[in-house]
Amino acid sequence: MSKVNIYLVEDNFLHREFIEQSIITSAEKLDIRYRMHTTFDIANFINQIDTHVIMDNDIYFLDIDLNETLSGIDIAEKIRKKKPPMLYLLHHFSSR
Question: Among the record's GO biological process terms, what is one (predicted)?
Answer without folding.
Answer: phosphorelay signal transduction system
